Amino acid sequence: MTKLYGSHVQVEIDAQQLPKRFRWLGRWHRILKCAKHEVEQHWWSKLRDPEPVRYRCETYQGLVCDLCFVIETGTGRWVLERVWD
């Protein structure tokens, strides 16, 4: 089961461009494991906006979440999309 958030978060990335830690609810969460995560979208949604780049991450505290890098008009922002129970 998951809970959707959509919260903007501050993310630090490593040399491989993967998230290594993120700031959420006033504290930093260090990431133990992280991998790109694909979500199948309807073909017509791909015509409007670029797909966000999604990562499934597990923190050292055991939190499993999906972080997304959303591209908007040449810039991007990080979003905590969901947290898994």
Defining key terms:
85 residues, 62% strand, 7% helix, seven-stranded antiparallel beta sheet, mainly beta, 1 helix
Question: Would you kindly provide a written description of the structure presented here, covering whatever features stand out?
Answer:
The protein is built from 1 helix and 7 strands; from the N terminus they run ββββαβββ. 16% of the residues are buried. It has a 7-stranded antiparallel sheet, with no helix packed on it. It is mainly beta. The mean pLDDT is 89. It has one domain (2-84). The radius of gyration is 13 Å and the shape is globular. It has one helix at residues 43-48, and strands spanning 2-8, 10-13, 19-24, 27-36, 53-59, 64-72, 75-84. The longest helix has 6 residues, at 43-48. Strand 5 and strand 6 form a beta hairpin. Helix content is 7%, strand content 62%.
Query: Helix and strand string, N-terminal first?
Result: EEEEHEEE
Structural class category: mainly beta
Mean pLDDT comes to: 89
Would you count the extended β strands for me? 7
Low-confidence stretches: none
How many H/I helices?
A: 1
Distance between the termini: 6 Å
